[in-house]
């Protein structure tokens, strides 16, 4: 199944992408393509030097729109392009940005389409530098960067690594996937959850048996990480409390990585104060070995007798806190069920004092652990039951966050 890649945050948003003369310019084609696929209207501006590395046609092909160059500045449309490109933009990105362009925009020079647009733009600006490490480390470049940061420009990268010159150091263009995360952070900043704190728990916990073995579950963290990203897209301040997962956390989340249910319990209870929303998507172990063997258990000693004890129910403890001091304002639970989905989930909703529970049928092959899709039913504390069709976990996150925003409105 091909999953749709549109991201609601990008739908109908107008993004200007300025590309300057660096060998990393070819990576900007990937970025332009990803932004377009996400649903953004991408207008590309190429500097003279950028065109030595990559052609406007490449960008026209991936964005389906015209890519502008300095020649257009002297065409019959000049009066429109001069400041018009910046007028309705939601975000101006300059990526890659050379040391020369950084210097120009830091000092308000306007001698090319990109620098004119940067000077005219009132929208947020994000700049991703790429240059040789020596140029990047120069005090003059650093001071230009400080100037831009001081004006509210987001500087993303560069990163350490090998540059085209063979030099290894700080100057490499940030990878487009990571840059996309920063773009989401910048675009979502003033969303409906701006100023609100959201905790998301994700992935499975592991309960050690001995120094190398543990009781684990197969939760990948996909649903929880997608929820964290969806909350960031809406401007929330997100803390992602994650069990064991190989996924890269969304840019902008404060990440707390841990292993056991007890550690997750401590982290959630420590952070839940002053938190508006708790999204408890983690697959927390219900039982743990009473005794953890320090050394690796030897086969020669025979089959071990592993005695288990229950872990604490974290949502249950959160419900007690909520009753005592009102935080979090809203808790959302997730129920993995293999039978009697709605009844079992509703019982958990009541028991754990939740505003909403997202129930999924883990007996189906396209829902639940590890896979990219989920088939969920949303049950709220007012008795509402909404059965959703098969969706990607990203889409499920979008729906859950929309519901969370509606529920927050009812609390105001
Ligand atoms: N949960 C929790 N603490 C635990 C176990 C689960 O806070 N020790 C949370 C999960 O993160 C989830 C919700 O409770 O949001 C329901 O989890 P689930 O495993 O479906 O239910 P359990 O309460 O563990 O009951 P059971 O496993 O018997 O179905």
Give the cofactors and ligands.
Answer: cytidine-5'-triphosphate
Give the CATH class of the largest domain.
Alpha Beta
* Termini Cα gap: 41 Å
Taken from the alpha-carbon principal axes, the silhouette is elongated
Q: Which structural category fits the helices and strands?
A: alpha/beta
Task: Please list the strands of the largest sheet in the order they lie side by side.
Answer: 13-12-9-14-17-18-20-21
What is the count of β-strands? 22
CATH topology of the largest domain: Rossmann fold
Helicity, in percent?
Answer: 25-40%
Radius of gyration based on Cα positions: 25 Å
Q: What is the H level of CATH, i.e. the homologous superfamily of the largest domain?
A: CoaB-like
The number of distinct helices, counting runs of at least 4 residues, comes to: 15
Please characterize this protein's 3D structure:
With 412 residues, the chain is an alpha/beta fold. The strands form six sheets. It has an eight-stranded mixed β-sheet with strand order 13-12-9-14-17-18-20-21, with helices on both faces. Strand 1 (14-19), helix 1 and strand 2 form a beta-alpha-beta unit. It folds into two domains: 8-188, Rossmann fold, CATH 3.40.50.1950; 197-411, CoaB-like (Rossmann fold), CATH 3.40.50.10300. The protein is built from 15 helices and 22 strands. Helices cover 37% and strands 23% of the residues. Helix 1 crosses helix 10 (176-188), helix 5 crosses helix 7 (113-120) and helix 11 packs across helix 15 (393-411). Bound molecules: cytidine-5'-triphosphate. The site of cytidine-5'-triphosphate has 14 residues, from helix 13 and strand 17.
